[in-house]
Amino acid sequence: MDIATILLATVVLLLIYVGHLLHKRYTYWESQGVPCDKPNWLLGSLGGAMTTKPVEQILREYYEKYKNAGPFVGFYWFTKPAAFVTDPQLLKQILIKDFSKFTDRGLYCNEEDDPLSGNLFNLDGNKWRNMRTKLTPTFTSGKMKGMFPFVTKLGQDMIEVVEETIQTDPHVDVKDLAACFTIDVIGSCAFGLEMNCLKGKNPEFRNMCRRAFVVQRYGILGLALRFGFPDLAHRLRVTETMPDVEKFFMDIVRDTVEMREKNNIKRNDFMDMLIEMKNNKLMKSEDGEDLTNLTFGQMAAQAFVFILAGFETSSTTISFALYELAQNQEIQDRAREEIEYVLGNHKQFSYECLNEMVYLEQILQETIRLYTIVVFLNRQALEDYAVPGHSKLVIKKGMPIIIPAGAIHRDERYYPEPNVFNPDNFAPEKVSARDSVVNLSFGDGPRTCIGMRFGKMQTKIGLALMLKNFKFSVCEKTTIPMKLDKKNLFVSAESGVYLKVEKV
Question: What torsion do the CA atoms of 196, 198, 199, 200 make, to the nearest 10 degrees?
């Protein structure tokens, strides 16, 4: 038997094996008598993702079809049977009450071959728990107050850029503007570096951030392999970070650390915290493991996720908030009045001012309800879990759990007229009357977003300064209704968000 024949036979046998495995997986929910749509052969229930439909639309349509079918319905997370949770009480059990049984996200992480993937968002088990303990002190109110002056200074830079821009053209892409602002903020607060993105002097940093967020290594096939067959992906040493992105961010972290240590520079920021944990043994976990002495790869990974999470989510929220305010002038005027009133009662814009801007907080919350950046939450069952009140329904050990946050936020049972922008959805009396678990913009439970304070701070500073100084309205270049980017796993505008901007 020649080599060609052997190879052909091997390929045929492999295809038969894979076909059998997929058939077994893709008939799982049918065999359990649980409602589920027929899956795509490669992407499971995410058929069309990143090609013909935004992920947000796929999950929302699935939720609308099955939201009354039970506490959860069948779903296929790529090639894996998954539980698609629709019931708030089961959500609460998974995220909060029985969190110890669902601590992991089950995302692909390969620290050896892809060090930037070993960040807090991807980590599971004790690695996640210990890293969370290490990083939590970075995001206290005290730390936020320390970073506040850096953010407001860059906010003033943004105002100057807008004032100069509208002298020649009043039509401004606020998506691009907000992205430059948040990149400059992250550069300052995480690295102590002047990115000067607002002034157009550092396009490479923004391009790399964008590539890290949007470009998928090996495309759809790579995604399906990493999430559908993670064990095989590990054996094949598959990575997800693009090589140029990895080199760029690793070099920035390395250069920053070397410069600070050589010159004994202290800024009391995120990078100082990482350097301190790299060099000192300050504490131990409950099981006796050192919570300090980070490796360089671990440092870089945490800095990397701080950049991406802080840049994309906040900039997108600012642009969508201004987009909605441009279409709702009464709401915009009310927000501006509150901002001017609060600032008028203080000698300068301080961290405490943000707490007094109650309506601005409502606008922020309503924006991330309507445009939930992270449209779903992942969890993974650590053991077989019988659903309370439904003894015949069992979430099996190792099974992915998909929580469609964005779809829940557009459910009329929780938010009347859910597709209408209405900050009064987050008036104190409305919030107290509603189960808190149906507001998942920052997650919920022990794995809630660790950077929530920072993200809200930079977003509200940006919005407050913009609304104080400018009026926003729609123009001929404004896309109505909003079109979402199909290639992005997260919610983002397909193109620029153009608005007419006038000096107040």
Answer: 90
User: Residue 398's beta-bridge partner residues?
Assistant: none
In the three-class reduction of DSSP (H, G, I as helix; E, B as strand; rest coil), residue 167 is classed as: coil
- Low-confidence stretches of the chain (pLDDT beneath 70): 1-2, 4-24, 281-292
Output the CA–CA distances (angstroms, integers) from residue 109 to 9, 112, 299, 357, in the order listed: 33, 9, 15, 40
* Nearest alpha-carbon partner for 241 in 268, 279, 211: 211
Burial class (CB in 10 A: 0-12, 13-18, 19+), 8: exposed
pTM as predicted: 0.92
Is the distance from CB of 221 to CB of 177 less than 8 angstroms?
Answer: no
Closest CA to 298 of 106, 125, 128: 128
* Contact predicate 83/402, CB 8 Å: yes
Residues whose CB is less than 8 angstroms from the CB of residue 240 and which lie 6 or more positions away in sequence, other chains included: 108, 110, 114, 117, 216, 217, 222, 226
Total Cβ atoms within 10 A of residue 419? 9
Tokens 């300064």 belong to residue: 465
In a 10 Å sphere around its CB, with 0-12 CB exposed, 13-18 middle and 19+ buried, how is residue 372 labelled?
buried
What angle in degrees, to the nearest 10, is found between the helix axes of 270-279 and 296-327? 160
User: H/E/C letters for each residue in 55-110?
Assistant: HHHHHHHHHHHHCCCCCEEEEEECCEEEEEECCHHHHHHHHHHCHHHCCECCCCCC
Q: What type of residue is 80?
A: K
Q: Give pLDDT tens digits for 54-94.
A: 999 999 999 999 999 999 999 999 989 999 999 999 999 99
Return the closest-CA partner of residue 462 out of 146, 178, 145, 142. 178
Name the β-bridge partners of 72. Answer: 85
Q: 155 to each of 123, 168, 183, 460, 503, how far by Cα in Å?
A: 33, 21, 12, 10, 16
The partner residues of 77 in beta bridges, in order of sequence, read 44, 80
Tell me how far apart the alpha carbons of residues 143 and 147 are, in angstroms, rounded to a whole number. 6
Question: What pLDDT digit, counting tens, does each position of 33-64 carry?
Answer: 999 999 998 899 999 998 899 999 999 999 99
Closest CA to 339 of 435, 463, 222: 463
CA gap 471, 462 in Å, rounded: 14
